């Protein structure tokens, strides 16, 4: 049996060079126990790329991911940063520019199929450009796309051809943003997978980067998804992930609220209208998340008595595994068009002509912020 070992003596994948392990299927380097008898030994991810044109999602913690980004800064590269429009501020890698130097960046904004069909896409693109700039990102182009509907990818491929030059292409992104679908499309359009998978080894690291060879000798490099604990989608139990992540177009839920009223999002979170004239608020969340309106003065008691039952999902058991709720309060100025954004759960648009004081209650650590309205 042909074995590939690193300097530490550990068995490594002959495709990407990652240290192999048989315990955790979602972690880098996983290989089924029976596959250790085959020759050559490759990790499950490389096996899927070679045999099925399929790239599976692998994740790493932030420290390891930043080491990976630092390597890109020393190379001639085109970076495709794929983000989730539903969770834009939660999925953007805000420190990206600091690590990749002057390498050009294409911002691929996935899941546009979740927005209503009447959406003004030019306004959305302008919104993305402005928000990206506010977060310190310098991008060559913004491409709106939908992995689910396979829309926008032709334009992305055109942009790759336009900006790549003699560079490798690195694809980076957080978990659950659709990175694997993009990689699979790039493999289909650019790579001849009849040849052996290019070996990519970075001694002394446990980073999983898969190199997909291009006809000109360069490569598309699939990087692992970065885990951001500030995203609600990283905290919930697997059974609840399909609840909070929408899989179809969002149906805005409009509520006319008086001050002193609250809206529960199942047992995931709560929105309070604390002070202001009667006005409307539009909720953009997954259709599987039930909404429940109540009086603010009763909200704490209602949650204590009914969380995990009437206010569910999550169930009592899964709710107990989430951090305690933290309260975030904001003052919205009269006439401003703002969203209260909760990373991984959605947002509430304040249809504001009067000004308001509002608050959100979500598990500690989840990103909550006020931003200019997306729609």
Automatic annotation (TrEMBL):
Domain CP-type G span(s) in chain numbering: 66-229
Top-level taxonomic group: Bacteria
SUPFAM superfamilies associated with the record: P-loop containing nucleoside triphosphate hydrolases
Gene3D superfamilies named among the record's database cross-references: P-loop containing nucleotide triphosphate hydrolases (3.40.50.300)
Matching PANTHER family: GENETIC INTERACTOR OF PROHIBITINS 3, MITOCHONDRIAL (PTHR46434:SF1)
Protein name per its UniProtKB record: Ribosome biogenesis GTPase YqeH
Gene symbol of the encoding locus: yqeH
């Amino acid at each position: 049996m042909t074995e590939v070992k690193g300097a530490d003596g550990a068995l490594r994948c002959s495709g990407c060079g990652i240290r192999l392990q048989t315990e955790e299927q979602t972690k880098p380097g996983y290989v089924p126990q029976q596959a250790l008898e085959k020759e050559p030994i490759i990790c499950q991810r490389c096996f899927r790329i070679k045999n099925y044109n399929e790239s599976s999602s692998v994740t790493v913690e932030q420290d390891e991911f930043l080491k990976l980004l630092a390597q890109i800064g020393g190379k001639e590269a085109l970076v495709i940063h794929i983000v989730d429009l539903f969770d834009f501020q939660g999925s953007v890698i805000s420190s990206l520019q600091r690590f990749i130097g002057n390498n050009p960046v294409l911002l691929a904004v996935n899941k546009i199929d979740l927005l209503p069909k009447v959406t003004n896409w030019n306004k959305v693109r302008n919104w993305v450009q402005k928000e990206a700039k506010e977060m310190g990102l310098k991008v060559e182009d913004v491409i709106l796309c939908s992995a689910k509907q396979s829309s926008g990818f032709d334009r992305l491929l055109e942009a790759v051809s336009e900006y790549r030059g003699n560079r490798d292409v690195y694809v980076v992104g957080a978990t659950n943003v659709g990175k694997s679908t993009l990689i699979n499309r790039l493999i289909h359009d650019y790579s001849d997978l009849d040849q052996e998978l290019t070996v990519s080894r970075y001694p002394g690291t446990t980073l999983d980067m898969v190199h997909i060879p291009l006809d000109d000798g360069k490569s598309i490099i699939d990087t692992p998804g970065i885990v951001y604990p500030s995203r609600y989608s990283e905290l919930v139990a697997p059974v609840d992930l399909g609840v909070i992540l929408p899989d179809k177009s969002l149906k805005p839920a409009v509520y006319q609220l008086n001050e002193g009223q609250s809206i529960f999002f199942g047992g995931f979170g709560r929105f309070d209208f604390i002070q202001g004239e009667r006005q409307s608020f539009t909720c953009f969340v997954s259709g599987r998340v039930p909404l429940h309106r109540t009086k603010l003065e009763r909200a704490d008691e209602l949650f204590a008595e009914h969380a995990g039952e009437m206010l569910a999902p999550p169930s009592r058991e899964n709710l107990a595994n989430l951090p305690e709720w933290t309260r975030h309060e904001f003052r919205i100025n009269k006439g401003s068009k703002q969203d209260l954004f909760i990373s991984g759960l959605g947002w509430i648009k304040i249809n504001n002509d009067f000004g308001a004081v509002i608050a959100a209650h979500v598990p500690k650590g989840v990103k909550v912020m006020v931003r200019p309205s997306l729609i």
